[in-house]
Amino acid sequence: MIKSDLKISWRSLRKQPFFTFLNTFGLAIGIAGVILISLFIYDEFSYDTMFADADQIYRIDIENKNAGEVNSYAAAPGPLANRMRQDYPHIEQLSRFMNMGTVFMRRENSEIALKEKDVVAADSAFLNLFGISMLEGDPATALANPNSVVLTTSEALEHFGTENVMGESLIKSDGEIYTITGLVRDMPRHSFLRDHGIFFSLSSFEEADDKAWNNWIFPTFVKLRSSANQQHLDEYLSDVKERYIIPWAMTFVPGLTLESARESAEKTGDYMRFSSIALTDIHLYSPNKNGEFSQNSDIQSVYILGIIGLFLIVLAVVNFMNLSTAQSLKRAKEVGVRKTLGSIRFDLIRQFLTESILVSFLSSMLAVFIAFETLPLFNALSGKTMSLPLTDPVFWGIIISGVLVLGLLSGFYPSFFMSRFVPIQVLKGSNMPQVGGGNIRNSLVVFQFAISIILIVGTLVVHQQLTFIQNKDLGFQKNQVLVIDDVNTAGHQLQTFKEEVKRLNEVKNASLSSFLPTPSARNGVTFFLKGEVLEPESAIIMGNWRVDYDYLSTLNLELIAGRGFDESFGTDSSAIILNESAVTMMGMKPEEVIGMQLTNDFRRSDKENMKYITIIGVMKNFHYETMRNRIDGMSLVLGNNPDKMMVKLRAGAFSDTIAEIENIWSDVSPGQPMNYYFMDDSFNDVYQSELRLGRVFLIFTALSILISCLGLFGLATFNAERRIKEIGIRKVLGASVPQIIAKLSTDFLKLVAIASLIALPAGWYIMNRWLQDFSYRIDIGIDVFLIAAGVAITISLLTISYQSIKAAMLNPVQSLKNE
Q: What is the full DSSP assignment across 720-740?
């Protein structure tokens, strides 16, 4: 029976090659899109799942609101770890980290130092907590002693050319010697540690003994026993401020009590909240926190792609249903003959469902081929390295299940619709049901184009937001600024290097600093105004950048009050410049704060000898974070130990100027290559996730429009064939070709117009929710809606015009010769 049904289905499909192609190709496009999106979503949810007992590991985070500014930190205070070990018995293991940033390491007896990015220090519990197996060394002791270091195999090969490195030494740029006490495999690609290959022992650094509760520089992970869960942990963390931090502050803040701290917090609305986040949630649910180990993704992007995938497959199924019901007139007599010869309704339903499943199977095989061929392009657009699991039985099990489900879903309504035809009526051609279920068919066309229009709106909004970001005035000049990295390797020759570069004709200015106005992880520093009560709610927490005298002029930062740093003033080593947001946090105006004094030296016991710095200027706010974040309070002070130099170039031949700078560099730092990049390139890198989302949106919007147009083209073809005699009569009665084209097109254009009325408000709502993640964003204008509706109407008009013109040009004699 199955063999017979398959043979009949195959013959039926071959009799209608045009509609079979439309159905198969449209469904294949939808399935291929879903395969690619499913791979992406699976990849996103697979981060950090490889660690042993990953579901029991959590990171401690902080959210702090101060003077209306909210900041989130993927780190905790130093003393918290020991307190938790003592007071929270549900911890199986706990480990602290410290981000070291970029360091330079060299082998003994070598003058060439290698640049190592994303270096971290970790305590002795790190390896065991995450279940990281070691190729060499003992995980319990490898990071227990000061001046110990564990390498990944890639780092071992890079430094020594071999994996046999146990007991060897590496020398940091500050002269400290570290002994290699362990070797591990490279961190998994889907791990939060994926960018890290060197792990110092945390006890090597004096910061590890930091007793300050307001210095949030230690990413802290805990592995819970089975007796506790995340809710239990969060309940404990909710009391950290009152249990530990306020009592600590009371030791150096005269008059501070628990009650006064509560009253102050209630009055100002400020807060400090400790919470936990599951290890497996970090990649998708922690995108914008200070101190992240690596760049994370965003769950919203996953949701958006998931919705797009759902839209695509629904479009493809609707397309199939639409075309199948539209062909019911051609197949009505087939149904009548079959029923006359004894077929019951169940037999007909089974036959039509078999045909539908066969189309689904052919479409799925074509979809796998399309997905395989387009996956490299999709990887390039999405920044992934995914592959189709063609040898995995689970993959094919999902495909086969999908074939059955899609076949049944897409064939259910057409099979039941056609199987209810009454033989005597359809054979006589009278009293037939409305051909193709007109109302349902029209509703499905509206649904298809509504989805396509929503995606068009999404594409336009993403494009406009990215254009806004790229063109917005940042408050400083990022163009033509060359950034030279790791200049601290020049040692005592660094200032000479800067002055030599400034003498070049094509160089406007140059500045040394470790702080660039580009998005990166930064920790806040706590200040108090001179004369203010030293209590947490009076604290001013803001960024504090160490710069040189040329920093403001190199970037053209604008001062709105006071002055900048000036070497002619001998007191500027104790001066500070604030931005507008910092002044707002203080509740004052820019002119009012000039001359006031701040301190971050409040921990000393002899309060009368605290060191103060004087506010000499206020600069206009500039964007140093992404547009997702508001401009927080920050400050500039004169400092030393810079590792970067910004060089403002004149317009011209950059390559020649860079070559001259490289020649100067080779004199002051022989043997070390000059690492450089342009500042505007680093800004573009920050928005790669948004750029990728925009490109993916564009691709899948195009696919949805293609699927809709395939269906619309098929329906236009069917409509023209069904109305061929009507067209002939109209032409005989004097109707012109344009009038007939307008008549055939109007019905479809009405449906697209209705789809626009439904889709545009929905598109506005969805994309407005997406824009809420940006502190600086566009307003969705009427132009977006006009363009989206115009594109949909234009594309639909072009799609149906061929069949409309073809039908209108047909000689009436041909259409009426049998009447």
A: HHHTHHHHHHHHHTT--HHHH
